[in-house]
Write a structure and sequence with these properties.
It is a single chain. The chain is built from three helices and four strands; from the N terminus they run ββββααα. It has 152 residues and is of the alpha+beta class. The protein has one domain: Roll (Bacterial Protein-export protein SecB). The longest helix is centred in the last third of the chain and has 22 residues. The radius of gyration is 18 Å and the shape is elongated. The relative contact order is 0.22.
Amino acid sequence: MAKEKNIKIDFPIYLVDICLIEFFVLKKLPEKFEKSGLEREKVSFGFNVEMNINPSTEIIHMRINTMFFAEKEKVTSIGNILTSAEFKTKDIGKSIEKFNKKLPNEFLATLISILLSSTRGMLALKSKNTIMEGILLPLINPMTFFNKKDGK
């Protein structure tokens, strides 16, 4: 079992905005899936997380592009959802200095988790009456978005 690490973040953080930037899903399944349909247990997801921390404005901006694939091998793309979040902080510059110019992955993972949960809800709402209806974004450990060499 992984060793727990307690990290003291000594600045307030507020969620300012969560936004749906883009939602796209194919209107109909590719030909090779027409007979069998989209099988819930075979649908897979790919993720691209972008983050920008601006100490002068005390804003952390995050975007997650979630891609949907018709199979586990991630060959047949069937859509995506792009979401973003903005968090406002106070004295983040001091904390960045405290942590040697880099905020702890555990803290950043918490912010990713907030946006992933919101993305899950947006996907559930936007996918009504589409080929993705009823297929939910799975629970994901946000620490998997960090390289092992970064993660300690």
